[in-house]
Amino acid sequence: MKIGIVGLPNVGKSTLFQALTKKQVDTSNYPFATIDPNVGVVQVPDERLEKLAAISHSKKIIPAIVEFVDIAGLVKGAAEGEGLGNKFLSHIREVNAICHIVRAFENENIVHISGKPNPLSDIETIKTELALKDLETVAKIKANAQKEAKSGKKEAAELVSALENFEKIPQNTADQYQLLSFKPTLYVFNVSSKNNLDLSNLKLPTSHFLPLDIGQENDISAMPEEERKELGIQSQLPKLIKAAYELLGLITFFTTGEDESRAWTIPAGSTAKHAGRAIHSDFEEKFIRADVIFWEKLIEANSWSKARELGWLRSEGKEYIVRDGDVIEFKI
User: Fold this and answer.
1) 8 A C-beta contact, residue 266 and residue 250
2) Would you state the pLDDT for residue 260?
3) Under DSSP, is residue 254 helix (H, G, I), strand (E, B) or coil?
4) Where are the domains of the chain?
5) pTM here?
C-alpha cells in the first residue's frame, strides 16, 4: 500500500520523505528539485508487537510497513501539462492515498511558488488540478462507455449512469479508474517554531489533518537514538505514520512465537479466512478455523499455553471479522 506525498513545489515534501525513510534525497531550496518519485518503505510503530515478542521470547520482530512516495510538486495548470504536470499526476494515480503537504509558515529565505504561502489557496490549487485531470479521465471513459451502451451492453450503460454526476461518482468506480481527487487524503501542515500562519479558519472536508514541524523532524531523525533519549526529544512521525496507515483503511493482526512475532496488514472488515491470505494463499484456500485472542488478554496470560488453559482462546470460523489487535493462530 502506497502513500503519495504531494503538494506545491518546495513546501517540505522531500524533507518529510527524508525524515520518514532516512534516505538522502534532494531537498534544495528551489521548485522541482524532485523530478522522478522517490520510494521508501516505512515501519509502522506498534508497541503491542514489542510486548507480544517479549512474552514469546521471539528471535525476530517484523512490523507492518507502508510505502511513502515523494512526488514532485504540482503547480497551477498541471492538468494541462504545466511544470511536467501530466507526468507528476500519473505518479499520483499509482498510489492508494495522498499525504498533502501544506506550508503554514512565513520565511522570506524559503522560496514559495506563488511568492507567499496561503494554506487555503495552496490546498485549492492542488485539489483543482486533481479534479481537472479526473474530469478529463471521466470524459474519455464515458465516451467509450456510451459507444458500448449503444450496442446493448448493460454494464456500459450502468457505467455511463455512474459517471453522470462527477461529485457523486461511487467510490468503487473511482477506485477502479484510479481517480485522483477521490483518493483518501491526509493534510499535513508544515509549521515552524515561529511565523506560523493562522489555520483556525480552515474548513477542511476531512478530519485527517496534522500540524508538523517537518524541518525539526528531519533534524530529530538524524540524531542517534541514545542522544534523543538523553535530550528527552520525541518525534511526532509515529503519529503521522499511524494516521497514514488508518487513512488506507488498514488494521493489524499478529502472529507470535519463538521464531518471530509479526504484524500483518489487512483491510478493515476482513474475515478470518481472508486474513489468512496475508500470510499465504493456502491459509485462505485451506482454512479450517482460527484460534483468536485479543493482544491485551494474551499479555495478561503471559503465554499462549496459559491463555489456552484459562479458556481465553476462541475458536472462530471463516466468517469471523478480525479486529485490530487480534492475535491469531490459523488451522489449515
Assistant:
1) yes
2) 96
3) strand
4) 2-248, 269-331
5) 0.84
Nearest-angstrom CA–CA distance, 240 and 10: 20
Round to whole Å and give the CA distance between 244 and 99. 8
Tell me the C-alpha distance between 83 and 67, whole Å: 25
Q: Which long-range contacts (CB under 8 A, 24 or more apart) does 176-180 make?
A: 177/137, 177/138, 177/141, 178/93, 178/94, 179/134, 179/137, 179/138, 180/89, 180/92, 180/93, 180/130, 180/131, 180/133, 180/134
Number of other residues whose CB lies within 10 A of the CB of residue 258: 10
In the CATH hierarchy, which fold is given to the domain comprising 2-248?
Rossmann fold (3.40.50)
Cell (9 digits) for 41: 518503505
Q: pLDDT by residue (tens digit) across 1-55?
A: 899 999 988 898 989 999 998 876 544 444 444 456 788 889 999 999 999 999 9
**Residue 244's closest CA among 69, 92, 49?**
69
Q: Residue 291: name the closest of 332, 263, 251, 262 by CA.
A: 332
Residue reference for cell 496534522: 210
Give CA separation, 68 vs 136, 184, 214, in Å.
27, 14, 15
Q: Are strands 185-190 and 326-331 parallel, antiparallel or unpaired?
A: unpaired
Mean pLDDT of 258-271: 96
Torsion of CA 9, 15, 18, 21, to 10 degrees: -80
Task: Tell the CATH topology of 269-331.
Answer: Ubiquitin-like (UB roll) (3.10.20)
Percentages of the chain per state (helix, strand, coil), in multiples of 5: 40, 20, 35
